[in-house]
Write a structure and sequence with these properties.
Layout lengths: L4 H7 L2 H15 L7 H13 L7 E8 L10 H12 L3 E8 L5 H11 L4 E8 L10 E2 L2 H10 L1 E8 L1 H8 L6 H14 L2 E5 L6
Parallel strand pairs: 1-2, 3-5, 5-6
Antiparallel strand pairs: 3-4
Helix pairs in contact: 2-3, 5-6
Length: 199
């Protein structure tokens, strides 16, 4: 069931509202305006991000041809976000078609994100590719991305909880160390996300 915007914001958590506001702005970036009610909520998000404690803002952008979701001009969106979030560093977090095909995602990043600093998604759980996670980049794939894009950060999303539900968390130790080593050796930041109920 799809909620109308007003109904969604009434029932959403603070984090969901923040995410939705940012997504609304991104989807409207090429039209250079906001949608009525969301403008105030988006401005509240901007005001809540303290530049003294938050030095980097990661903005999720996506292209999903199968769902008719498009990002026609990543450079325009990036410049708009840089202006809105100044003086903070802004990184785009690109997602192509739910990150289900690395070759397609890499092609999109290499052709549409030239000169744009990105946060590279390295792991995403989900259930679209079981028994595998939706996205799980190998070390060579991370290096491929670094060779064609300005990768400044990587994102690992809910890895432990996914492995607790579908596999064995202990099996990922060496892979995680490899990825973190490449981050350390190349000065990349790490965005490690976890579910609230993880212990």
């Amino acid at each position: 069931m799809q909620l109308e915007p007003n109904e969604y914001f009434e029932n959403a958590t603070k984090e969901q509202r923040a995410s939705a506001n940012l997504s609304s702005e991104i989807s409207l970036a090429d039209q250079n305006h906001f949608i009525g009610q969301n403008k105030d909520q988006y401005q509240s998000l901007l005001n809540a991000v303290d530049p003294q404690t938050c030095k980097t803002v990661v903005v999720h952008v996506c292209e999903k041809p199968n769902e008719d979701v498009h990002l026609p001009n990543p450079a325009y969106t990036y410049q708009k976000m840089v202006k809105e979030f100044a003086p903070r560093e802004v990184l785009l977090l690109p997602e192509y078609n739910s990150n289900l095909n690395w070759k397609d995602t890499l092609h999109w990043i290499s052709t549409d994100f030239t000169g744009i600093p990105i946060c590279l998604p390295v792991f995403e759980g989900g259930n679209l590719s079981l028994p595998d996670p939706n996205l799980k980049l190998t070390l060579p794939e991370v290096q491929q991305a670094m060779s064609v894009a300005d990768v400044r950060m990587i994102r690992i999303a809910e890895m432990i909880s996914w492995y607790m539900e579908y596999s064995n968390p202990a099996s990922i130790r060496d892979e995680v160390i490899e990825i973190l080593d490449i981050c350390q050796n190349n000065g990349l930041k790490v965005l490690w996300e976890r579910m609230e109920n993880q212990r």
